[in-house]
Design brief:
10 helices; globular; alpha/beta; 7-stranded mixed sheet
Length: 250
């Protein structure tokens, strides 16, 4: 299964449809979807009457998005860190599960805000405490925390970004900043994981080559298997959260 296929499968586990109902979205608004991937949320926004530009750096995901869209909405390959669009300002911005790739998110957010009109809305969605599952062996917990700290220190990923979005938005001078927490069949659930969710987590670990390199083979395998065992346990408890932050540009 390709990474694009993974993205499409994960879409069914998200609460995107319910989140969409919370947006101050109006037909005719020009909206950015940053980190759009294969365009599932871009298509939802367009179906509500928005004029949407989806932006991503993954050409395979964008190819899928364009094929699914049949010409509308529009898609663009661009670097989200240094976003530079030759477009008039947008009325809204959506970005889901993208902010974590920018552990120093403040300058990236400022760059995004440059492309929004005064009064425009923003909706940012991320996970916090991604590896917070119980029961979990203390050695595995320590290993996962060390890896998360390393990734954040190297500027590669922040597994706790969801908990920081409100502060980033407030520091950027945004208004009407509010957060909400959402269920997620893959990332935020209680009790044992469904078989397809458990397999998705196993494939996620297969993609985490940086974790394998950082922890070493033996420690990586032990941590992976312990977390997978936790996810499958009848007594499984999840401390992670999917957070959506809504705000407005002054």
């Amino acid at each position: 299964m390709s990474l694009v296929d993974e993205y499409l499968r994960q879409d069914a586990w998200r609460s995107f449809d319910a989140m969409l109902e919370k947006l101050p979205l109006e037909a005719g608004q020009r909206v950015l979807d940053l980190g759009c991937g294969p365009g599932t949320m871009t298509a939802r926004l367009a179906a509500k009457g928005a004029d949407v530009l989806g932006v991503d750096q993954d050409n395979l995901a964008l190819k899928e998005a364009r094929e699914r869209a049949g010409g509308e909405p529009r898609y663009l390959n661009a670097d989200l860190r240094t976003l530079d669009l030759d477009e008039t300002p947008f009325d809204g911005l959506w970005s889901s599960f993208t902010e974590a790739y920018f552990p120093d998110f403040a300058p990236v957010l400022q760059r995004w805000l440059e492309h929004l009109a005064p009064g425009a809305w923003l909706a940012l969605v991320e996970v916090e405490a991604m590896f917070e599952h119980r029961p979990l062996d203390e050695n595995a917990r320590t290993a996962l925390e060390e890896f998360a700290t390393e990734m954040r220190a190297k500027g590669r990923y922040d597994f706790d970004m969801g908990s920081k979005l409100v502060d980033y938005c407030t520091a950027a001078g945004l208004e009407a900043v509010e957060s909400s927490h959402w269920v997620d069949a893959e990332l935020v659930f209680q009790g044992p994981a469904a078989p397809d969710v458990l397999e998705a987590w196993r494939r996620r670990f297969a993609r985490l080559t940086a974790m394998r390199e950082f922890l070493g083979q033996a420690r990586f395998v032990a941590s992976r298997e312990d977390l997978l065992h936790s996810l499958a346990a009848p007594e499984h408890e999840c401390g992670a959260s999917v957070t959506m932050v809504l705000a407005r540009k002054p």
